[in-house]
Amino acid sequence: MDREIDHAEALLAGLLERRSVSPKRLCAPGPGLDKLDLILQAALRAPDHGALQPWRVIEFRADERDALANCLEQEKLRRDPLASDKDLQRAREHALRPPVLLGFVVMPRERCKVPLREQWLAAGAALGNLLNAAHLLGFGAIMLSGERCFDTVLLRQLRVQPHESLAGFISIGSIAQAAPPARPVLPAQVWSCWIPELPPSSAAPAQENHDADGGHPGT
Ligand SMILES: Cc1cc2nc3c(=O)[nH]c(=O)nc-3n(C[C@H](O)[C@H](O)[C@H](O)COP(=O)(O)O)c2cc1C
């Protein structure tokens, strides 16, 4: 039993070290098809109300990266007709640099008993699992969105349908240079305990600050 706990804690310790790794810090090789398949299996294991799978990924393979770079360069020029050569090169690099590049598309179903916000949450949970799986397999990964994700011409070029949203691009690769360590996060920032309201008969003054929720149980 103790060994099982040690194993679980070691797995969790690995997960707690996850950081997003900028494309500049990534190098080849990225995950091959078998690893990418595993990563997507993990994404598909995320909680998903109604098993709607309200998301999909578009893989941009090596042979198509130049064409994608042209699309991103044109998008940059639409947004900023005065963009410098350096800006345009940077736009192209979004397509050319990552060893593996995925578009993450959210496709919520309208007129469905599962509310839209839950479908977006399910898509976000899948994204989290995807990034965690890449990390646990030893790769660096990051999700980046930006204004390009709202450009209707680019969306049409990528065949993102009108009822879908391009949430962002996921870069995955080997880690050439580790990301700086994460700032420590404290569960107390997100953790409180509920205390029922006092009945009106009890004359205790109402508290307005957040502590009225009872504070968090970590203290
Ligand atoms: C949907 C989504 C879109 C994001 N888009 C951007 C972006 O365009 N630019 C950016 O710098 N970070 C973006 N981020 C944040 C990074 O992916 C990353 O989470 C953040 O830099 C924090 O790093 P960490 O994951 O190591 O904590 C986005 C995150 C999510 C979930």
Oligomer: single chain
Bound molecules: flavin mononucleotide
Mean pLDDT: 92
Category by helix and strand content: alpha+beta
CATH topology of the largest domain: NADH Oxidase
Top-tier CATH class of the largest domain: Alpha Beta
Low-confidence stretches: 208-214
Residue share in helices?
A: 25-40%
N-to-C SSE string, H for helix and E for strand:
HEHEHHEHEHE
What brief labels describe this structure?
219 residues, alpha+beta, binds flavin mononucleotide, globular, 2 domains
Give a brief rundown of this model:
This protein is of the alpha+beta class and 219 residues long.
Layout of secondary structure:
Elements: H1 2-16, E1 26-27, H2 33-44, E2 55-59, H3 65-79, H4 85-96, E3 100-106, H5 116-136, E4 140-144, H6 152-157, E5 165-175
Helix pairs in contact: 2-5, 3-4
The chain binds flavin mononucleotide.
Flavin mononucleotide binds next to strand 4 and strand 5.
Folded structure, characterized:
The chain has 219 residues and is α+β, with helices and mostly antiparallel strands. The chain has two domains: 8-181, 3-Layer(aba) Sandwich (NADH Oxidase); 185-219, no CATH class. 37% of the residues lie in helices and 14% in strands. It has six helices and five strands, in the order H-E-H-E-H-H-E-H-E-H-E. The chain has helices at 2-16, 33-44, 65-79, 85-96, 116-136, 152-157; strands spanning 26-27, 55-59, 100-106, 140-144, 165-175. Strands 1, 2, 3, 4 and 5 form a five-stranded antiparallel beta sheet that branches. The protein is globular. The protein starts with a helix and ends in a 44-residue tail after the last strand. The model is unreliable at 208-214 (pLDDT under 50). Flavin mononucleotide (FMN) binds at residues 19-20, 142-146, 167-168, 182.
